[in-house]
Design a protein that fits this description.
The chain is of the alpha+beta class and 485 residues long. The protein is built from 10 helices and 18 strands. Among the domains are: 116 residues, Metal Binding Protein, Guanine Nucleotide Exchange Factor, Chain A (Beta Complex); 114 residues, Archaeosine Trna-guanine Transglycosylase, Chain: A, domain 4 (Roll); 71 residues, Methane Monooxygenase Hydroxylase, Chain G, domain 1, CATH 1.20.58. GO terms for molecular function: metal ion binding.
Length: 485
Amino acid sequence: MSKQGDESQSESETNHDYELIDGIADGIAMEIGEPISESDINFDRSLPGRHTYLGEDSVAIDTSNHQEPGTVVSLHMLYKPGIVLIPGYTLPLLITNYTEEELVNTYRDPVAILPGCFARPISSDFVGHIATIAYLVTIRFSGSRCSPVLLGRQRLRIMEIQLSSSDNNVFCKGLVLPETSVDGASLGPISRLAIPPSWCRFAPEPDFIPSSSSNDQSQSPEPRVIPYPLPGDAFGVFDASHSTWCLPVPVSDGGGGGDSGDSLQSQNLSRLPCRRDILAAAADCTTPHPAWVYRQYDLPFLIAEIRAELSRWTTTWQMDKWNPSLAVPFSYWLLQNLPLTCVQKGELLKIDHVVQRLRACLNFIRSCSELACSRCKAAISSQKNVICLSHEGSTLAYVNPHGFIFDMLTLSTVRPDSVFLTGSPTAEYSWFPGYAWTIAHCGACNSHMGWRFTATSDDLRPRLFWGIKRQALVHTAEEDTEVGL
């Protein structure tokens, strides 16, 4: 063959190689996934939270007890690096060589789950931080292996880490914290400043308590109390759905007995209709602070604002159930599902009042845009790619066959070339039944990021998604943004 023919053949082979590489690249790009909406999901969302990968057979444990808030207790402690257990969420454990009876005896008392925010912690590092009191709720069986699942229930402010001299067990001594919601004591002053007393004639009907006995001359009816607005709703006192103002007046019982026969009866007086926005504008002119200041502490406003912000992230979060009456569990749902680092979760868990906790979460939501590798800060994905594939939310703790626990966030897609895969897909011990997993590493620094999950059947949706370790992610504004109030 001539030299020119060799060159032509070589050029043809080179072009063919380029086409092959381009085809492979196109295939890889297609396999990073695509945005997923609520209608694209038919996966059974109850499966991940049940941790069926630990075994199909299970037994439920009745642990309805709880620690009295305000008491100091000493509990067995458990430390898992990278894990901050949130009240209301589960922590699976993989423990070998334990029988069911031994597990029940080991976890018959609650356990303090210490915050996994420290690389090489010492006892003094935990003082002042928040542990979570957890109870054994389920034991799952796979052959001869028994695996416990713990449920976080209460917060515990750590006072001391103690070592038992008798059996060398380590205990956590701490104060059981109450779950403070919005109440009159905390938001009363704000509400009182926001509503001039002269406007209370527009308010809903107050409650009046008559004397316990009409024959008791020493007691008099309770004085009328100015009806301040409901906690968390600074302008809730102006409720236009009420058309009358009821004022108690003494009415004779008809027996001519004078005051001894008087009783309380409501007299309907006409009242003016009112509009919330007009009165809010009026309050803006008559109170020492503008209305937007009070609105920052208004619970319905905070929850509505958070729901509006998160609706721009994904449609797969089912947030319709969250309302002001569920403010505390909603704040914990946010701590569990937002892409927070362990340190940020621990700091937010320290906040006792739910309004302050929600304000801090809202501040984080507004600052979060892109998700990056925590090691090299290379862009991995966007917060708009977060998807919810379990009833608990988009983030849940899972344990692998070696006993390592991962807090994992599910994403619909990642940036092209941001990660690469290692190994072949396998459905063995899959945290999402019906999906095979493949190990994923950061494309820039080679650190372990998580896993890619692909459906093993054609009718399962989504067809592909990613599970990224929470401790492997940071949001891009982390250096410039503090979790503030």
